[in-house]
Amino acid sequence: MGMKIDLQTAAQRLREKDNILILIHQFPDGDTIGCGFALCRALQTLSKTARVLCSHTVNQKYDYILNSVTPQCFEPDFVVSVDVADQKLLGEPVLSAYGDRIDLSIDHHGSNTFFAKENYVDASAAAASEILYELICLLCGEPDKQMAAALYTGISTDTGCFKFTNTTPKTHLIAAKLMERGIDYGEINRIMFDTKVKSRILLERMALDSMRFFCDDKVAIMTITREMKQKSGADDEDLNGISALPRQVEGVLIGITVREQEGGYCKISVRTHEPVSAAEFCAKFGGGGHVRAAGCEIKGSVEEASEQLLALAKTYFEAK
Amino acid sequence: MGMKIDLQTAAQRLREKDNILILIHQFPDGDTIGCGFALCRALQTLSKTARVLCSHTVNQKYDYILNSVTPQCFEPDFVVSVDVADQKLLGEPVLSAYGDRIDLSIDHHGSNTFFAKENYVDASAAAASEILYELICLLCGEPDKQMAAALYTGISTDTGCFKFTNTTPKTHLIAAKLMERGIDYGEINRIMFDTKVKSRILLERMALDSMRFFCDDKVAIMTITREMKQKSGADDEDLNGISALPRQVEGVLIGITVREQEGGYCKISVRTHEPVSAAEFCAKFGGGGHVRAAGCEIKGSVEEASEQLLALAKTYFEAK
Questions:
Q1: Cβ–Cβ of B195/A248 closer than 8 Å?
Q2: How far is A319 from chain B (nearest CA, A)?
Q3: Which terminal Cβ of chain B has fewer Cβ within 10 Å, N or C?
Q4: Do A43 and A167 have their domain in common?
Q5: pLDDT tens figures, B262-316
Q6: Would you say residue B320 lies in a domain?
Q7: Domain identity same for A39 and A187
């Protein structure tokens, strides 16, 4: 386990070093991308050589962030990871290449394993981009417009556009600072929140068609079969967040999504409202998670899984 | 046309007066409700007699705001409207009862008609609740938790949770201040943004089923028939925002929603992306609106209307 350092020391390290490789996590999201490229641009602004590396291709919707840095090729002297809770989350091939030689880790996950030589972790930050904002202020003053757009993207995507409970007053204060740089936050949010690929729309409509209500509409079960995925052309990324739909219906206390997998089993996602614990519900099937969102796996077809899930759900309302 | 005054003067008037009636606009939304009840609570905190009046019943999802004031019955000596751009928007019966005797109007609409004796209008405010925050600070210092919850609701709903381009750095700064009062903003946003009535879900799925794509998926047409409304049990409020769906599909430049009306005609809503002007598009059918969102009416069935709309849409892409 590496050392804990403060943010000033982290900034000092970056100031001292050059040829800096920035690692972001696999299946990159807005926060890790925003952090990585904002830092890269800040370092390049300080006339340093820097680049961002990821095990997976970055979705082209983030092009406005990627285009804000100059591509640079070099042998790294210093390796820093951003928004990475555990080196395993670098994924391959980055993990094998750099997993054991990370000099500095900057992150906001409470579950961070302090895998780097030096680590700065602030679990109170809604997004790692909040920390990067402060780090960049230490490095070169207020971020410029491009860095601000990258950091705003990180903050906005990690907080559901300031909707989730990880949002803090500080989140809003930083958002205000970033907006003052003249970023096109309206367009950023449109791309991040109000754009759906056609395959997602097609899948969503089949998923909504499958939604069934039970127990006086307190239980909703939605099923996503492999056939539905095939017909719509949706991939796993397109499924992101779809499990939220059943619980969004007013009055639903247990919202269940059953996703058919290859190999004769189903992945189950359960979202609940008070007083039902999703974690307890899923534990009955050997799964787990949080109080309001949990998951488990059940052998059998979607029909068989749904039947078992419904049988358990019924006990919650018959017992009362 | 009445006088323009500054916010200090507006606060002074409220401080001098008692038995204050607060009017909010018809079909009340989160902003007018948040403003009205936050001000009512602030005045009651100052030991004044005050109440909120609206021509329409407030949806029960706002109960946490309504419950923050004490019901009081009195003959008003001073009448103030909040978030009302024109007295007509009070609706009946409030318009006839009080439309010509409004002492003070506090609003954020650029289109405000200065209908009150004294008027404070700040069109740069994303929500009238931003102005009310400042007014309450002048009246009695930082709002308490209940006032803060009401004002946060107003700001969050008028900005699509900080997503729309009316949001300013100041909006975020005020949100930060309100969050510091310990409000349950996660629950507020869940109620406002992540809760749908079952009829809306049912209608949405029928509407999605009806969505058809043309011109290499650059045009999407969605139809909502009277039968669909009947089957789903959805009312006009449930239809709110549904016209946004067709343009949300990636690649769609013209998103059209055709809503069948009684009397053999259809209401059309058109949302576009660059370079298509929705206003110009709708002007061809005698309608109008903004560059990205406009509307018109077309005589005939949904099929007939869709055909005419598609014929026009095609010209945009064939011409190029």
A1: yes
A2: 25
A3: C
A4: yes
A5: 999 999 999 999 899 999 999 999 998 888 889 999 999 999 999 999 999 999 9
A6: no
A7: yes
Do residues A155 and A228 share a domain? no
Q: What are phi and psi of A93, to 5 degrees?
A: -90, 0
What is the CB-side half-sphere exposure of residue A139 using CA atoms within 13 A? 28
| pLDDT band at B319; cut points 50, 70, 90 | low
Distance CA A75, CA A50 (A): 10
What totals of helices (H) and strands (E) does chain B contain, helices first? 13, 12
Please indicate, yes or no, whether residues B152 and B294 belong to a single structural domain of this protein: no
pTM of the entire structure?
0.88
Within chain B, strands assigned E span 3-4, 20-23, 50-53, 78-82, 104-107, 118-121, 212-214, 219-224, 254-260, 265-272, 288-289, 293-299
**Residues B78-115 as b or e (16 or more Cβ within 10 Å = b):** bbbbbbbbbbebbbeebbeebbeebbbbbbbbeebbeb
Q: Look at chain B and report how many structural domains it folds into.
A: 2
| CA of residue A99 relative to chain centroid, distance | 21
CATH number of the domain encompassing residue A242 = 3.10.310.30
B78 with B164, same domain?
Answer: yes
For residue B237, count other CB atoms closer than 10 A to its CB: 11
- d(Cα A214, Cα A235) in Å, to the nearest integer? 29
Same domain for A180 and A225, yes or no, is no
Q: Please tell me the distance in Å from B5's CA to the nearest CA on chain A.
A: 28
Both B189 and B218 in one domain: the answer is no
- Looking at A149, A171, A193, the residue that finishes a domain is A193
* CA within 13 Å, CB half, A52: 29
Given a cut of 70, whether residue B320 has pLDDT beyond it is no
- Contact list in B for residue A197 (CB cut-off 8 A) is 249-250
pLDDT tens profile A184-205? 999 999 999 988 888 988 899 8
Contact B175 A177 (CB under 8 A): no
CA angle, corner A52, sides to A99 and A180, nearest 5?
Answer: 130
Q: For residues A215 and A317, is the Cβ–Cβ distance under 8 A?
A: yes
Domain identity same for A187 and A209:
no
Residue B16: how many other CB atoms lie within 10 Å: 8
Q: How many residues does chain B have?
A: 320
Please tell me the distance from the alpha carbon of residue A59 to that of residue A61, in angstroms, as a whole number: 5
Determine which helix (DSSP H) or strand (DSSP E) holds A224, and give its type and residue range: strand A219-224
Last residue of a domain, one of A148, A174, A193: A193
Walk across the sheet containing B219-224 and list its strands: B212-214, B219-224, B254-260, B265-272, B293-299, B288-289
